[in-house]
Amino acid sequence: MIFQFIQPLDLETILITNLAGSMKIFFFLMIIIFAYLAAKFRMPNQVFLILMAVFIVFMANYYSLLYTLLIFLVGLFFYYVLSKIIKT
Fold first, then answer.
1. What are phi and psi of 6, to 5 degrees?
2. pTM of the entire structure?
3. Does the chain have fewer CB atoms within 10 Å around its N or its C terminus?
4. Among residues 73, 68, 75, which one has the least CA distance to residue 24?
5. What is the DSSP letter of 13?
6. DSSP characters for 25-39?
7. Measuring CA to CA, how many Å separate 60 from each of 14, 40, 53, 82?
8. 32/27 Cα distance (integer angstroms)
9. Residue 36 contacts by C-beta under 8 Å, 6 or more apart in sequence?
10. Burial of 20: CB neighbours in 10 Å, binned 0-12, 13-18, 19+
């Protein structure tokens, strides 16, 4: 097995390459995690929308506009479903 040296605070390599495997999987996992945390802590819808908008702006460098909008809508759907499951 070959090991790769990783710089101590190289979060892109740690989170994307080692944890998720690819950028698309990381993108999808972060949306699900954000939706779960927002539902768990019962964040208002406006706060979650701002959180998602900031995340989408950060990720806009990696993907096209249509893909980021699709992921944004998927994140809203996950938030809606998880908030209904957790709050009841």
1. -120, 130
2. 0.70
3. N
4. 68
5. I
6. HHHHHHHHHHHHHHH
7. 20, 27, 10, 25
8. 9
9. 78, 82
10. middle
What are the structure tokens assigned to 73, written together? Answer: 């809508």
Answer for the pair 26, 35: CB distance below 8 angstroms, yes or no: no
- How far, in Å, CA of 71 to CA of 88, rounded? 26
Domain residue extents for the chain: 11-87
At 62, the amino acid letter reads Y
DSSP annotation string for the chain = -------TT-HIIIIIIIIISSHHHHHHHHHHHHHHHHHHTT--HHHHHHHHHHHHHHHTTTS-HHHHHHHHHHHHHHHHHHHHHHH-
**CB distance 75 to 33 below 8 Å:** no
Structure tokens at 10: 């190289």
